[in-house]
Amino acid sequence: MKKLLLYTSLCFLGCYTAFAQKKPKKTTPPPAPIAKKALTHDVYDFWKDIPERVVSNNGQWFGYALNPQEGDGKVVFQNFVTNQTDSVARGGELRFSNDSEFAVFKIKPQLSATKAAKRAKKKKDEMPKDSLGIYALSTKKLSKFPAIQSFKLPEKGSEWVAYLGESPKVKPDTTKKAPTRRAKRESDENGYRLVTRMLKTSTERAFGFVTDYEVSKNGKRLAFATSGNDSTKAGVYVFEPTSNQLQQVYEGHSKHKFKKLSFDENGEQLAFIADLDTNSKAQIRLPKLFYWKAGQATAARLADEANQPAAQGWLVSGEYTPRFAKDGSKLFFGTNPKPIVQDTTLLTEEIVNVEVWHWQDERLQTQQKVSLERDKKQSYLAVAHLNDLKLTQLGTLEVPDVTLVNEGNADFAVGKSDRRYSHQHWDWNPVEDAYIISLRDGSKKMAKEKIEGSARTSPEGKYLYWFSNPDTAWFAHDITANQTIQLTNNKTVKYADEEDDHPDFPNPYGIAGWTKNDQYLLVYDRFDIWQIDPKKPTSLVKLTDGRAAKNQYRYVRLDAEERNIDLGKSLLLRTVNETTRQEGFSQLTGSAIQRLYEGDFKVGMAVLKAKDADRVLFTKETFKEYPDWYATDLSFKNVKRVTEANAQQANYWWGSVEIVNWRAGDGTPLQGLLYKPENFDPTKKYPMMTYFYEKNSENIHTHYAPRPIRSYINFSYFTSNGYVVFVPDIVYKDGYPGQSAYNCIVPGVLSMIDKGFVDKDKIGISGHSWGGYQTAYLVTQTNLFRAAEAGAPVSNMTSAYGGIRWDSGMSRQAQYERTQSRIGGTLWEKPMQYLENSPLFHAPKIETPVLMMHNDDDGAVPWYQGIEFYMALKRLNKPVWMLNYNGEKHGLTKRQNMKDFAVRLYQYFDHYLKDAPAPEWMSEGLPMVEKGIRQGLSPVSSQKASQLGSGSQK
């Protein structure tokens, strides 16, 4: 057990000279040192995160949500000018108005009230509701509006907000006779009250029974659909809040449905989808596309089932939101084949449910099952030319994937299709054909056949570009010239992962983007940024010079709307040094790089910049420091911390981390991370946890807040409780993933033992998924570990090979042949490698107790893999436990389950590595009749604990 240091205060005696009629001078004792304590499972709920953050356009305000992991949080407003802060309890979904004068957000009900309502089994409409908060930043005045569902603030307008919610409750007048007709009630079907509120004047306008609404980007107009009431006719309306002008652009019936309202860039044009069939039970709906332009009295019908550009029998899609071209010249919408519907006259026992798995299926039946609901809503792009209302079909069954070019302003689109190659289910690398599609007549021209990569379009639409996997090179296709150009060759400069150790094509390092007019493509290698001219691809220009010092440079996009990189301006770059692991920011101006800010910490790529001011916010973190937010300007000369999410951390023992080096069994130099307890004493012997997942040394500055466990151990919790944690990097040899793990991990553990502070008899090992497999394999090869936890492990590669990844429906074969499992061939080509690398076939050699967590709805690693391993160890009378959280997938998502797993995992390792009493679930199990009633977490007597056995023998 780790001993906590006890602090005592020194008592100081004050000396003074006594003077007549003078009182002795009082002295203030120094503050007592903080008596730190170890982290416990009780701290999780109040540990906080900052899930939302936004900076005002003028750069004066920073707003963020500060939420405990479980409980009521708040939104915080910080003024950079006055350094004052204010907050509103339970706020979230925060936005600042365009003029930086107001903050608008939702206010959640108290968690305790919501839980109480759930326990009371309240109906949906009786549950506590969100409220709307409007906070005047200059006066700190808060206005609240109860029972709202949503709000929308114009992106570039600042005068008003629209919100949808329940009408205020009005007590009935008992002096009047009750009406004979039942009043229309607000509901999802009938709609709710929509309110527009002017932020500065508080002037409101309300509309009843609104089912959908949309705000134009510039804040000029609001469109809404209503089912109508006594004073408002059903239909679609356009409202101008600043002028208080309302226009009905379509008059409908109360049973008509309107949705997918969409404005153009300037708020001058509107499109929407209408379902005008009043028979709500009709299985086949017949949506219609309507279009309105400012100045028109009513909206016109552009397309319907009788007038649409696709094949006969197709319909206008009710699932695709119409979209205007950026210049407003075209309107894009969706079509789809008429759906096949169930014969409603059949009884349940008359319906045949059968899956026909055909050997020529383009997609496996399991893939089709996963995407079934998405497939039912599949839309195929079409366009309406608004100058002459010509309709053109673009997407087809053969080429279903169509993307707009230059935000829809181009006269063509790009279509992609993998249909000719998608039956190759054993290969996960994308292969597709790319087409140029005329927006005028829908004709298709093959641009490039069999692209072994994923093609994208340059911002201005001059090029298609992609990384070709088999060529390990970047390519571009000049659309006008119909010419394909190889941009790189990966020989003189390597643009793909230099250290990749899969029996597959290496992944590219990626791109920074295109410059203005699609002139240059900026591509990454391992360290640097290269400028490539598609017209002169051999004229490479290296914009940075990081390789010699092992400094990696990556472009930081400060404007979310940016489409092109302007090389005429200074660019902000994030820097990472592979040797020192220092991170920070630099500025690239022309060919000159200026270091701005760096240190022994990690910075994020999500950098916030005020739209109209030189204000920048970023996060930095270390193992000890939560990723709080810091403010500066683009010079980074004065950096100021602006948040402190978890001040309470000072009350707890934490730890430190360092890089350690050793050599693998074959002599390969390796690195890893070693986490040590706070106030580490090298003369003591510590229990050690070993965790791994491929390579982790680059995560030296990652902060691990104490939280329940989703799948892998929490390093901070272990160091706080007196453990050393070792996280080794692993390099792999094709065909021998298990032996590769042994070759790297075991020598690493032995090198830690040689340092003298690790108790060689108290070493644990834990991993999940791929790490779970390696854990299961290692305990078949060594007795070095006192206890092991293998989460969702593949134990039998021969049975797993032919299985399905249920979450995606994809075949698992590629997993073993070319990707993470790294066998490098099929089961019939390399049967011995599949057998040799499968822990199941070596189970008799295991002497280490094994805990597994493998859930029955795991969609990544089949649950039966855990069962096979469990049954083998059970039959061999080896100490083994398997935790199955019903309905959970590969990693836990339900908080109560994560908390439970955290307790059990730490109990397990504390028992074997710290000689703590075993809990009941370990010594006695947990009968099915007690599931969900008693958890068996209480410790048992030492006599019962001895029945668990001693585990592995050293």
From TrEMBL:
<keyword id="KW-0031">Aminopeptidase</keyword>
<keyword id="KW-0645">Protease</keyword>
<dbReference type="GO" id="GO:0006508">
    <property type="term" value="P:proteolysis"/>
</dbReference>
<dbReference type="InterPro" id="IPR001375">
    <property type="entry name" value="Peptidase_S9_cat"/>
</dbReference>
<feature type="domain" description="Peptidase S9 prolyl oligopeptidase catalytic">
    <location>
        <begin position="737"/>
        <end position="915"/>
    </location>
</feature>
<dbReference type="GO" id="GO:0004252">
    <property type="term" value="F:serine-type endopeptidase activity"/>
</dbReference>
<protein>
    <submittedName>
        <fullName>Dipeptidyl aminopeptidase/acylaminoacyl peptidase</fullName>
    </submittedName>
</protein>
<feature type="signal peptide">
    <location>
        <begin position="1"/>
        <end position="20"/>
    </location>
</feature>
<keyword id="KW-0732">Signal</keyword>
<keyword id="KW-0378">Hydrolase</keyword>
<dbReference type="Pfam" id="PF00326">
    <property type="entry name" value="Peptidase_S9"/>
</dbReference>
<dbReference type="InterPro" id="IPR029058">
    <property type="entry name" value="AB_hydrolase_fold"/>
</dbReference>
<dbReference type="GO" id="GO:0004177">
    <property type="term" value="F:aminopeptidase activity"/>
</dbReference>
